[in-house]
Amino acid sequence: MQCPQGSPLLASGKWSERLLFVLAGQSNMAGRAPLLKSEEYSCHAGGVEGGVTNLLSSTMPGQDSSDAVLSFGQRSGVWSPAEHPLHADKPEKAGIGPGLSFAHYVRKARPQAQILLVPCAWGGSELARWRPDSGDLYRECVQRTHAALSDVRASTTDSGNVIQLSGILWHQGESDSGSIETSS
Fold first, then answer.
1. How far from the centroid of its chain's Cα atoms is residue 180's Cα?
2. CB burial of residue 172 (10 Å; 0-12, 13-18, 19+)
3. pTM to 2 decimal places
4. pLDDT per residue over 102-111, tens digit each?
């Protein structure tokens, strides 16, 4: 996978840490909740106060930085401010998933951290496709994560600011629930 090196969204030295999270699994992670017009939402994303903007984008109230939560495009391999839909597995079905709400929770707990999301979920995928020894989606996820980490390292000039893989969020669907063999 090739991606442009040196994203200006990553170049800022204002973050005390950069936390990278991989978002993997099936449609429940990819997000299938409908994308409505913002005025139709009346809830708060991830329990973070401030209204509808939080649900749809990477910014939080009182935060003027669109580079606080970034997403590594699933098809483009380019960093951009995170917004729904994060995943591009099935564009005709893409919607709201848990990744951005999670990022808002992390930002609330770690306001000096830049949150970096690497969407890798694929709706309807069988667990066999995620096996470390033979799964195509597992290999793609690892390649995307390495590409994202490399891009961050190439873009960051401040040596004190370390990027780390901070977690992998996995949300399974029901693709393997049809038989005893695949669901156990």
1. 31
2. middle
3. 0.81
4. 999 999 999 9
Residue pair 29/174 in contact by the 8 Å Cβ criterion? no
- Round to whole Å and give the CA distance between 22 and 136: 16
What is the DSSP code (8-state) at residue 2? -
Three-state DSSP string of 170-183: EECCCCCCCCHHHH
pLDDT tens for 74-121 read 888 899 999 888 988 888 888 889 999 999 999 999 998 999 999 999
Is 127 within 8 Å of 176 (Cβ atoms)? Answer: yes
3-state SS track over 8-66: CCCCCCCCCEEEEEEEEECHHHHCCECCCCHHHCCCCHHHCCCCHHHHHECCCCCCCCC
40 CB-near residues (< 8 Å, 6+ apart): none
Distance in angstroms (rounded) separating the CA atoms of residues 65 and 1: 28
